[in-house]
């Protein structure tokens, strides 16, 4: 009897292993995938918001917790905390006796808050600019593009388009 796993019957993105049997095969799925051929992405966000304190974004075979504007992600990658405004302003502005200098990093912009508080260095949500071909996930000062692996797409070398 020939090898039932050749050619591979399992979904290329979702399977971890293919076990050959007598006139049958078994696809062993990676975490985040299910189905006879490991072809179905599990939406972890449907179950208690994926354990995220604010926003949950489903990704092919995985998920990611996100924070609303004005909050930061704690090291556990699930819980969000509020920004300390004075620390945030201090980190974004530099001044000497005569001038206030704006120090910008890519992915941030300045926003006038109050005459006594000065300005805020705020995150730009690049995802609102449709910068990614399929799925975009915003993060402080940056973003990441993802493709629907369930439909056979993968991220191209430009890290924005899908092929």
UniProtKB/TrEMBL annotation:
Signal peptide positions (record): none
Keywords assigned by UniProt, alphabetized: Disulfide bond, EGF-like domain, Glycoprotein, Hydroxylation, Repeat, Secreted
Gene Ontology, cellular component aspect: extracellular space
Keyword Lyase in annotation: no
Cysteine disulfide partners in this protein: 10-27, 29-38
Domain EGF-like: start-end pairs: 1-39
Keyword Membrane set for record: no
Location in or out of the cell: Secreted
PROSITE patterns: ASX_HYDROXYL, EGF_1, EGF_2, EGF_3, EGF_CA
Main location: secreted
Example of a GO MF term: calcium ion binding
Name of a matching Pfam family: FXa_inhibition
Cited InterPro entries: EGF, EGF-like_Ca-bd_dom, EGF-type_Asp/Asn_hydroxyl_site, EGF_Ca-bd_CS, GAS-SHBG-PROS, Growth_fac_rcpt_cys_sf, NOTCH1_EGF-like
Protein name, UniProt field: PROS protein
Source organism (scientific name): Corythaeola cristata
Encoding gene per record: Pros1_0
């Amino acid at each position: 009897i020939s090898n039932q796993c050749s050619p591979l019957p399992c979904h290329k993105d979702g399977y971890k292993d293919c076990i050959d049997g007598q006139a049958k095969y078994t696809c062993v799925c990676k975490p985040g995938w299910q189905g006879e051929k490991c072809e179905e992405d599990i939406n972890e966000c449907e179950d208690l918001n994926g354990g995220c304190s604010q926003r949950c974004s489903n990704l092919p075979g995985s998920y990611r917790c996100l924070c609303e504007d004005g909050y930061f992600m704690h090291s556990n990658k699930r819980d969000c905390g509020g920004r300390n405004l004075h620390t945030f302003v201090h980190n974004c502005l530099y001044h000497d006796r005569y001038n206030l200098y704006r120090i910008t990093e890519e992915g941030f912009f300045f926003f006038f808050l109050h005459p006594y508080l000065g300005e805020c260095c705020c995150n730009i949500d690049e995802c609102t600019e449709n910068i990614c071909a399929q799925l975009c996930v915003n993060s402080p000062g940056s973003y990441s593009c993802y493709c629907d692996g369930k439909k056979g797409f993968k991220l191209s070398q430009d890290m924005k388009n899908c092929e």
